[in-house]
């Protein structure tokens, strides 16, 4: 596969992965909002932990799906001998860990640099998503604690 083909195919898979990631986060928002409403009513540690855990779980699922997409393309391109090696290489590349124990051939290496770019971009998005979620949860938790303290002072 030539350089231009690798870059075009890799960019296409990157876009598919970005769409998967953004879609899962967007689909999670109504669920997180409902959980947030329940958290506001209970304002306890457990409900805050559930809300943050659900957000975290959704990001894990999104990243896992993307690694599977990259592994599937590796198999389709016949650049890996089996599913285990395809998944391993995809995960190591996606996380930019890059052990180097499995190295793609010259005919596919530029393609897989885009798997690393996908990981960088979507991990950044996940971080922003989780920071925003945790900030809102902590703000609601702090507001509820302040309200309880104020009620205590009034009585």
UniProtKB/TrEMBL annotation:
The lineage of its organism: Bacteria, Pseudomonadati, Pseudomonadota, Alphaproteobacteria, Rhodobacterales. Residues 67-135 form the Potassium channel domain. One of its GO terms (biological process) is monoatomic ion transmembrane transport. The keyword Transmembrane helix applies. It holds the Pfam family Ion_trans_2. Coiled coil: none annotated. This is Two pore domain potassium channel family protein. The keyword Lipoprotein does not apply. The chain crosses the membrane at residues 6-33, 45-66, 111-134. InterPro entries: K_chnl_dom. It comes from the Bacteria. Keywords: Ion channel, Ion transport, Membrane, Transmembrane, Transmembrane helix, Transport.
């Amino acid at each position: 596969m030539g350089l231009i083909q690798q870059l075009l195919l890799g960019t296409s898979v990157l876009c598919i992965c970005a769409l998967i990631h953004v879609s899962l986060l967007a689909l999670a928002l109504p669920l997180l909002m409902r959980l947030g409403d329940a958290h506001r009513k209970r304002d306890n540690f457990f409900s805050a932990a559930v809300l943050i855990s659900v957000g975290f779980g959704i990001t894990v699922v999104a990243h896992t799906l993307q690694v599977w997409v990259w592994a599937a393309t590796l198999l389709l391109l016949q650049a890996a001998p089996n599913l285990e090696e395809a998944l391993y290489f995809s995960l190591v590349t996606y996380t930019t860990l890059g052990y180097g124990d499995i190295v793609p051939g010259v005919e596919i290496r530029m393609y897989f640099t885009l798997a690393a770019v996908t990981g960088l971009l979507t991990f950044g998005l996940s971080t922003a998503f989780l920071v925003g979620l945790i900030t809102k949860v902590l703000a609601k938790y702090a507001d509820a604690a302040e309200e309880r303290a104020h009620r205590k002072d009034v009585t």
